[in-house]
Each structure stands twice: as C-alpha cells, then as structure tokens.
Amino acid sequence: YPYPSGVTEHVSNLAKTLREKGHTVTVITLHYPGEEIEEGVVRMGRVVFVPMNGTLTTLPLLNPLTVKSFFDKNRFDIVHLNGPFFPNISHWALKYTHYPCIASFHSTGFRNLTFGARYYKRLFPFYNKLKAYIGGSQVSADFIKPYLPGKYQIVPYGVDIERFTPSGKKHPEITKLKGKKVLFLGRLDARKGLRQLLPTFNLIRKEMDAHLIVAGAGPEKPKYEHFVKKNSLTDYVHFLGFIPNEELASVYRSCDIYCSPALGGETFGIVLIEAMASGVPVVASNIDGYKEVIKDGYNGLLFNPHSTEDIKEKILTVLLNDSIRGNLVKEGLRAVKQYDWNCVTERILEIYLKVVRNERHSERMYGMYDV
Predict the structure, then answer these.
(1) Between these two residues, 62 and 120, which has the higher pLDDT value?
(2) How far apart are the first and last CA of the chain?
(3) What order of strands is seen across the sheet that includes strand 180-185?
(4) Residue 368 — pLDDT band, cuts 50, 70, 90?
(5) What pLDDT shows up at residue 113?
(6) What local confidence, expressed as pLDDT, does residue 370 receive?
(7) What is the pLDDT of residue 270?
(8) What pLDDT shows up at residue 55?
(9) Which strands make up the sheet holding 41-52, listed edge to edge?
(10) Cα–Cα distance between 211 and 272 in angstroms, integer?
(11) Three-state DSSP class for 131?
(12) What confidence category does residue 4 fall into, taking pLDDT thresholds of 50, 70 and 90?
C-alpha cells in the first residue's frame, strides 16, 4: 500500500474520502520496497512479490504478534478488513482485534478453488466475528462465499470524478502524435492481455493511421518490445512505462479509445470507470467482472479477448464512427456518476453505522468514527 493495484487504489481513496467527511482513519499495512510515507498509515512486517496466475501477487512476511500488540494499544470504533484470508495482515487483524469487524472482498480467479472451502471457518473460527460482508462486485462475492458463507452486500469501487474528467491537462508525449490513439493501461503481464492486443493493432495499422499507447510496467515487457520490433511497429507502439498517479487522468484524456483485453481474474475494472469518467470510450473483454461495469453497446463495447478479429472489429467500430463514439462517451459519463467516491463512501458509512448501532460499542454512535 499504495503499491499500484485496484485494491490499494480502493483503500487509499476510501480512507481519503472518510477523512474528508471528518472521520479518523488508520490504515494498517506492510512495508514494501519504494513505499511512500503517508500520515495515518502504520506499517509492520514486509511484503514480497511472487508470480501467480499470470501476474504478480503479494506474499506477507509478518509476525502476527505485532498485529496483536497494535490492537492491544489502540482503540477503534470499527475495523474494516480488506481481503481477510490467511496469511494476509487482515487475517491476523481479525483474529486479534477487540472491536466490531466488517470485511470487503476483492478477489476472484480463473476458477474457484473449492477444495477445503467447507473447512475454512472450522480452521479459523474467529471469522465468525465478522458483522458484515461486502463484495466489491458480485463476482468477488460469489468467489469467496464457499469459504465464508454469509449475507453479502455489493458496494462497487469508486472513482474520483473531480480528477478524472474530460477537460484538463493532456499528456504531451501522446498529444504530439498524429492519428488515432488507442490506450492500454495496466501491468505488463500475461493476464492483462497485451499479448492479444499487439497483433490486433498490427492489423488495425494496415487499415488506418493509429498509435498504441502502452502505459504500465511488468515482467512481459521484453517480449512485447520484441514483437513490436519484429513487426516494424516501433514508430507506432509507445511504451510509457509506469504512470504516476497524478498523471493518470492526463493519459486517459489524451487518447481516443481505451482498450482492456484482460483474460480473466478481474473482479470489477477500476480502469474502465476511470476511462469513462475521463470521457474516453471503452472497449473491453467480455469477462464476468467487466460485464458488471459495461453494458455492451450502451456505455462500452465488449469483445472476446481470444479473438483478434473481434477485438479489431470493436476498436475500429469506435474509431471510424463518430456517432457511436459520441454515444459511448455520453452514456459512459452518465453511468460513472454512481461510482463517485462520495456516493460509494456514504454506502459504506451506512454499513458502519448499522454495525456500530447493533454492537452498542461506541458511545459516539452518531458522531465521527475511528476506522
């Protein structure tokens, strides 16, 4: 935290919005290389990154008693856990905290690993302490239910609609390019699907003047660069590398279309709502997590990520038809209002209030919370 990922982006923005509304928020997380120093963030243990499912995942190295000591010394009105599952730091926080707990779940997978799921709560009975269950999407809720049965409330991820807007500063490296600009923004690993998009773009280049903007870093970059060089696309595929958070909005609004060809493992797709809020039409894979955000033909177009022809057709449909592009932008801006962080945070605060009321834990039931 805040290592770039959908979950850390979610936690960071939720904490920020809660503080803006007057609540006191402490984020407990792990040390990691290149971490940022941030007020209200407590770090313990450390994290290492390991490849899994075609991407990088985090492995916590932590003494659980450090977590116990923290909760013995600090008081909270409510503890909001994100992705509590062994051996995450939130798993140990649930075990050792003395305060009412709720949990948000963000994970999914290419298949649900149900082996042993029925025994999970028996192995860790303190999961019965949870007072509320939140799924960031129906996909993430369905994925975790075999392990932790319960009544899940779906509260989607949010977007800062004051930062991600159609108007504003544009990215100078992108705006100097002539022709249409197709944006891929994500980690350069197998799961995110750039391997599918590159040969598609090679075909698109034969039909129109276009550039592919690749924003992100990751282990597959040398392979992608080799493909670009081999197919004489060096002047048309631009690797920008890792994009700092403060530059993201300028990158989106400098492009004509955003394409996410992810192969799976996506619970929602924060990048989709960031692009829509920036006034950029979206084309994306027809995977379950994305289908909760994109209504095909209405606020975006969906394609089969394993079909080069389908990806090509959807991208060209948007780039060559101003009417379709305009409608997708308009409906995208309309749809994204429900993901405004103020709206999302209010829904989470309602859950906090209900839990605190039921627990009768805090005397300041109707005041500001310590989270």
Answers:
(1) 62
(2) 17
(3) 237-241, 210-215, 180-185, 257-260, 282-285, 301-303
(4) low
(5) 54
(6) 67
(7) 93
(8) 60
(9) 27-31, 41-52, 55-61
(10) 20
(11) strand
(12) low
For 169-222, the pLDDT digits (tens) are 999 999 999 999 999 999 999 999 999 999 999 999 999 999 999 999 999 999
76 contact partners, CB below 8 Å, separation of at least 6 = 26, 97, 99, 370, 371
**CA–CA–CA angle 159, 161, 164 (5° rounding):** 90
Residue 2, pLDDT > 90, answer no
Strand, helix or coil for residue 252 = helix
- Rounded Cα–Cα distance for residues 244 and 259 (Å): 20
* CA 279 vs CA 167, 179, 225, 254, 318: distances in Å: 8, 18, 29, 10, 13
302, 180, 312, 321: CA torsion to nearest 10:
70
CA torsion, ordered 243, 249, 255, 259, to nearest 10 deg: 70
Q: Which residue has the tokens 């770039």?
A: 4
Domains of the chain: 6-158+340-359 (3.40.50.2000), 172-338 (3.40.50.2000)
Helix-, strand-, coil-residue percentages of the chain, each rounded to 5: 40, 20, 40
Angle formed by the axes of helices 6-20 and 341-359, nearest 10°: 70
CB 166 within 8 A of CB 279: yes
Helix (H, G, I), strand (E, B) or coil at 356: helix
DSSP 88: S
Q: pLDDT confidence of 56, banded at 50, 70, 90?
A: low
Strand partners, 52: 55
Q: Environment class of residue 326 by beta-carbon count within 10 Å: exposed (0-12), middle (13-18) or buried (19+)?
A: exposed
* 300 and 283 Cβ atoms separated by less than 8 Å: yes
Name which of 244, 272, 247 is nearest 258 in CA terms.
272
Do 97 and 104 form a contact (C-beta atoms < 8 A)?
no
- Beta-carbon contacts of 135 under 8 Å, excluding residues fewer than 6 positions away, are 104, 105, 141, 142, 144, 152, 153, 154, 155
